[in-house]
Amino acid sequence: GRERGPEMSSTKKGNSWHFGMKAHISVDVNSGLVHTVGITTASDHDNSVISELIREGDRAVFGDKGYASDKTKRAARQAGVYWAVLDKAKRNRKLSSTQRKKNRKHASVRAKVEHVFRIVKCQFGYRKARYKGLAKNAAQVFSLMALANLYQARGQLLATAG
Q1: From the CB of residue 39, how many other CB atoms can be counted at a distance below 10 Å?
Q2: How far apart are alpha carbons 71 and 43 in whole angstroms?
Q3: Nearest to 106 by CA among 86, 134, 88
Q4: pTM for the whole structure
Q5: pLDDT tens digits for the chain (162 residues)?
Q6: CA angle at residue 132 from 127 to 134, to 5 degrees?
């Protein structure tokens, strides 16, 4: 029978289980192009990779609630970085209306990241990891992200070439 890759892992999202890996990307807010890619197994926590996605000159960090961490938030604020990672409800405490408003306000910037994943999934048909081992799948994801950048910049590239 087919054996699953030992480097991959499972995680639960909602009510369904997913096996494989996660791609974490950092996108330039002005161009919408990917500048950094990180790969983890499915069970690794999102905030384990956030420090690798932030560049030295970055002045703001946007992310979904999986990247929320009080420790990282404090460190970013001390460094003068605008922290716009979605606030996450703590156990037995709902988000305040201020937190919900702030989360909604940051959604349009976060959409730039989701747009890259839409290109990779819808334009290139990438649905699931197809190789054994994290390294081979990571290489494929890095290639797809580079292609997504070319796809997004195609108008500018063709204009300068013509």
Answers
A1: 20
A2: 21
A3: 86
A4: 0.82
A5: 456 667 788 888 888 887 889 999 999 988 999 999 999 988 888 888 888 888 888 999 999 888 888 888 898 899 899 999 998 888 899 999 999 999 999 988 889 999 999 999 999 999 888 888 899 999 999 999 999 999 999 999 999 887
A6: 80
